[in-house]
Amino acid sequence: MNLNQTLPICIAGRWRLGQGDRYATLYPATGEAVAYLNAASLDDVEEAIQGADVAFRTSGWAQRKPHERAAVLYRVAQLIRERGEELAQLQRLDNGKPITETRNLVGSAAATFQFFAAACETLEETITPSRGDNLTMSVYEPMGVIAAITPWNSPIASEAQKMAPALAAGNAVVVKPAEVTPLMALELARICEEAGVPKGLISVLPGKGSVIGDAITLHPLVRRVSFTGGTSTGKHIAHIAADKMMPVSLELGGKSPTMVFEDADLDHAVAGVLYGIFSSSGESCIAGSRLFVGHGIYDTFMERLAAGAAALRVGDPADERTQVGPLITARHRESIESYVALGIEDGGRLRTGGMRPQGAQFDRGNYYLPTIIEDVRNDQRICQEEIFGPVLVAMPFSDENDLIEQANDSVYALAAGIWTRDYKKAWRFGRAVQAGNVWINTYKQFSISTPFGGWRDSGLGREKGRLGILQYMEQKSLYWGM
Ligand code: NAD
């Protein structure tokens, strides 16, 4: 990617300047411009979707044998790996995550393409059951134009999670990355084309969600929206989808409880809780942001946790030793600061953090220290609303029935963490906690073969997993007269 020129965007295989407003993407660590581009215009949206529909119907991609589509997607995975370091550095500039994290995200994008290439090949074997005297066949057909709308916090991984299965299923994909982080989606589109995905099947349309995202969602030729982002945006998209009778999948927000029991391995639990909330600067839908600690170990545990949080290395995302990078934008940091102020106003007590780090090296970036707030109640706003930053609220518990009620007392139900040596307790709480993803003596452990998603306000549908490809296909039953 040549960052010295205004970047072209991808409109149904044509790489040209968008017709919307020109803007710069900024490096969160310094506020400097990384790239200039023009957002997509509404005319660009129309051209991209019409072009995607034509490519879907005429490129022959959907008619290729699954192993032929798979071969192209394996090549995408290979190209991502070959260019891994370059992509990881670009993503660091795009959203300011530490380089060690962006390398993982790039690796995960490659693994996702590889996995859905394999899923596409094996799907062929599942479509021909027959019954009784008559032959019936249940087959899956691609849907047409799929919209992939993604947030700024894990670009490339979020985009791969939608593009790989949608393409594997034979569809065209229109990607709408977050306005502030468009670079990885653009690179991924280039890589897909280089690997042999027919031109026109992929578009990347950066721009404002309320304009470009809305126009894409509303377009009659868009047959499915796969959305990752905030809950209010997800609900808005769900309303449009209901009117269009269009399936959607929604990966939304969270306020995930982590429960540390008195019999937990404390070294392990301290490290896991710190990682669960402060990795990615807390800008993670699954951040373990509500902590419940057994009364008997509360003081010891919190002392160790606060010391661990204060010792985390906040700083330059290019530095291999950095554990907590800057936040995405200055505005987002202000929102986090106002949440911390609210928590304190409501009676919370700062255990650590609660401010910007001091020092000239932090002056230009959107840095904020890992923050822990105690003396809060689960029903307060600081414990109920998603902050999406490095802020942990902590509460002691003494009654296990009360604990599960509090853990489940949230509109969100995306993830949960349990730390205990007692496997029966882990089982009991693992079943009782309401969440799409529960980690036991670990946190943020992922597997591409395991379905991922949330309950209630955390979303609808599941991504990943072998059957994740089916959400991008329509089922059809064929009945044969004999
Ligand atoms: P957001 O909802 O503001 O934006 C997400 C995407 O939707 C962006 O591309 C945006 O431009 C677009 N968008 C905004 N308004 C739109 C509209 N009216 N129509 C169509 N598209 C629109 O969210 P964000 O601030 O970018 O991301 C943070 C949120 O994402 C957090 O709530 C976080 O929990 C959530 N998230 C969830 C998951 C998950 O897997 N559950 C993963 C990552 C992030």
UniProtKB/TrEMBL annotation:
The active site is at E251. InterPro entries: Ald_DH/histidinol_DH, Ald_DH_C, Ald_DH_CS_CYS, Ald_DH_CS_GLU, Ald_DH_N, Aldehyde_DH_dom. Residues 15-477 form the Aldehyde dehydrogenase domain. Keywords: Oxidoreductase. The keyword DNA-binding does not apply. Belongs to the aldehyde dehydrogenase family. This is Aldehyde dehydrogenase. It comes from Undibacterium arcticum. The lineage of its organism: Bacteria, Pseudomonadati, Pseudomonadota, Betaproteobacteria, Burkholderiales.
